[in-house]
Amino acid sequence: MIYPIVKFGNPVLEKPAEAVTVFDDALKKLVEDMFESMYEAHGVGLAAPQIGISKRLAVIDVTFKEDPEAKLVLANPEIVHTEGKHTQPEGCLSIPEFREPVTRPRKVTIRAQDVNGEWYEKTREELLARAFLHETDHLNGKLYISHISALKRDLIKRSRVPNMKVLAAKGCECARPRLESTQPVANFLRRALKIDSAIFFFQDGRQRGFCVVLRTRSYRAGNQSPQSLHH
């Protein structure tokens, strides 16, 4: 069974999951379904809350089906040791269209149970270590955006408006009627936020702020005006 991926904004993603206490055939079937759902979504890790199930259960395959031995089941995982630091772009199936550099420990030791309830420990580095931390965060009710700046996090949260998405707008002309700042300011904001969305200071007679150009899914150039998100 392929489960739909729960998107950011659903409360199940922001509360601690419940411990797995029964290791039976139903759990094995859920694990199998989670792997299939992860592959269908083109992910390398998936936590149960991401399919709407509040259990401390996650699956990982950083090889994406290339090595069957690389498939991992994490039930009731605990991070027991970390070392070093490593910064790398990170994304999440529950927050599509966004990737941000996140600094996490380079080396991680995790303790977890497998699908049969047997405890094990693994120590891994870089990508798999990052996957351990990312999925464990999910089970603790945290998303990767909790590790980025408040400004970027607020931008992502505000952009998750139903039926809207950020318009990739390098050189976009649609906001120029409202543009009153210099282009260097706009370029600075693009670099500071590390996104390509058109961001400009504006003056509408009531307030100053920056403007992120958004569009509805039905928007087409020439027949509708893009909407702006103000901060």
Structural write-up:
By secondary structure, this protein is of the alpha+beta class. It folds into 2 domains: 138 residues, Peptide Deformylase; 74 residues, no CATH class. 22% of the residues lie in helices and 29% in strands. The protein has 4 helices and 11 strands. Strands 1-2-3-6-7 form a 5-stranded antiparallel β-sheet, with helices on both faces. Strands 8, 9, 10 and 11 form a 4-stranded antiparallel β-sheet that branches. A two-stranded antiparallel ribbon has the order 4-5. The chain is globular. The termini are far apart. The C terminus is likely disordered.
Q: In CATH, what is the homologous superfamily of the largest domain?
A: Peptide deformylase
State the helix count.
Answer: 4
Q: For this structure, what is the CATH class of the largest domain?
A: Alpha Beta
Query: Percentage of helical residues?
Result: 10-25%
Entry keywords:
Peptide Deformylase; 231 residues; five-stranded antiparallel beta sheet; 29% strand
Explain briefly what this protein structure is.
The chain has 231 residues and is α+β, with helices and mostly antiparallel strands. The protein is 22% helix and 29% strand. The chain has 2 domains: 11-148, Alpha-Beta Complex (Peptide Deformylase); 157-230, no CATH class.
What is the strand and helix layout of this fold?
Blueprint: H1 25-40, E1 45-47, E2 57-60, E3 72-83, E4 86-91, E5 99-104, E6 107-113, E7 119-125, H2 126-139, H3 150-159, E8 164-166, H4 183-193, E9 199-203, E10 208-216, E11 227-230
Antiparallel strand pairs: 1-2, 2-3, 3-6, 4-5, 6-7, 8-10, 9-10, 10-11
